[in-house]
Amino acid sequence: QVQLVESGGGLVQAGESLRLSCTASGSIVGSNAMGWFRQGTGEKRVQVAIMATDGSTSYADSAKGRFAISRDYAKNTVSLQMNSLRPEDTDIYYCYFLPLLGSKMYWGQGTQVTVSL
């Protein structure tokens, strides 16, 4: 089993920044991809940013130019630096971990990000 522990959510005003972090621990057999998704009440979980083992990244259009994902491969940690936050960024953010292609995906418990005007 793999456990994901997230930190860094909170309440900020529009224009401010937050940094989310997530550390994977447990029976880790690989580290294919780590990243962040978001989900609103009654909505589907959607990708925010993902970074693969080779360093390639994928961002949601809403995150491009404002958010930056990074990984510490030795510590199995992924971080998301969120700048210029907007009220529409408000959601629960979930850490995502895919050990190997085709393997089980793991999710963190979620961390609330709230951006006020």
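the 2nd protein, sequnce then structure:
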Amino acid sequence: QVQLVESGGGLVQPGGSLRLSCTASGFSFSFYSMSWYRQAPGKERELVATITNYYNTNYAGSVKGRFTISRDNAKNTVYLQMNSLKPEDMAMYYCNAGTATPYFASWGQGTQVTVSS
């Protein structure tokens, strides 16, 4: 079955950086676009960044220029490098296959990003 395991979150000061990782299994990772999503308390889940199977990338306007999505198909892993973090980036971060519409109904446990001084 599909498994998505996110890691790399933590507490960081405003302006700091984090690198998130998501390791996938149970599907042909290299054939799928992969995305990072986030959900803050009381808010709906939002799409943060996408990388296609052709390595094209797309970002939400709020993170463009600060976040970088990448993938390593040999490791079935997608990454999110987050720089210049802001308090409004604070959320639980998840990965999934797909773009605006996540492909798989099952989600991982997510990884919490807290931005605070």
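The mean pLDDT is 97. The chain is about 0% helix and 45% strand.
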